[in-house]
Design brief:
Two copies of one chain form a homodimer.
Chain A lengths: L3 H9 L6 H13 L3 H10 L4 E2 H8 L3 H13 L3 E6 L2 E6 L3 H28 L2
Antiparallel strand pairs in A: 1-3, 2-3
The first copy, chain A, binds a DNA duplex through helix 5.
DNA sequence: AAACCATATCACCATATAGTTATCCGGTCA
DNA sequence: TGACCGGATAACTATATGGTGATATGGTTT
């Protein structure tokens, strides 16, 4: 409803948003387009975690976890705090959970609708 | 705020959402992680369009546009209506615009913050 | 029917990226 | 100091995917 997305269109009446803007938006979506990263974010929803914690929770290798965290960090989605040997990661942009909620709701409605169709077939 | 995303966590206290659920969510994000598809959706925001219309608007090849539209169609994000030689596409799940708005807002805030940092450096 | 048109699909190539292994780096502790 | 530990990074492989040109499909027009 904020209209930032819509604004790009209304401005020039036809042109749409710039290539760079679309690329940025797509890039943000791309970061969330990976189950492992979603799992990491979900784990961080419970509060600050070390890389080791996240390795344990996800069952992934340390290198893989570290790489994904690095990507999320570069994008500013998570923040990092180093203490002794450990790196503590935490959510820096909680709006991503709103995104996930929206997607979940949308998918849930779609599945419910499909289920209803099947039920309709059943009782013919 | 709906809490669908959060629910997965609160349920078992630690396990998180299932792999399939995360895969579905990631898949939805993956669809939006492409500038060309975002451009198509943006064009469709103005109402129903034929493939030819979208080819003209985006400047992409017909095959490419058709392929992307097919993906969005399979995911239920757009709907299709065939009339004569033409296929008319339209938005079927408008919640994607809410997603785009959220991302735009988040990115905008991030850029504004960075800009502020630079300004701070400027006037030292 | 034949020519034509809009769209969908196929086969292909080029590129991007997730995962793995090995290694490096910095800090801690004996 | 040297052994050890957590984490980051590099090199590599395998796979997924976007773009393209060619072709198939289904409907229209003459």
């Amino acid at each position: 409803m904020s209209g930032v997305w819509v604004m790009g269109r209304s401005g020039s009446g036809e042109a749409g948003m710039s290539d760079e803007a679309l690329e940025m938006i797509a890039g943000r979506f791309r970061l969330l387009a990976e189950p492992m990263r979603l799992r990491l974010l979900q784990a961080l929803q419970g509060g600050e975690r070390t890389v080791g914690d996240l390795v344990e929770v996800t069952g992934a290798t340390q290198a893989n976890v570290s790489k994904h965290l690095g990507m999320l960090y570069d994008a500013g989605i998570v923040a990092r705090r180093k203490e002794g040997l450990n790196s503590y990661y935490r959510i820096a942009d909680s709006s991503i959970f709103d995104l996930c909620d929206l997607v979940c709701t949308s998918l849930g409605e779609k599945l419910a609708a499909q289920h209803e169709v099947m039920r309709g077939l059943g009782r013919k």
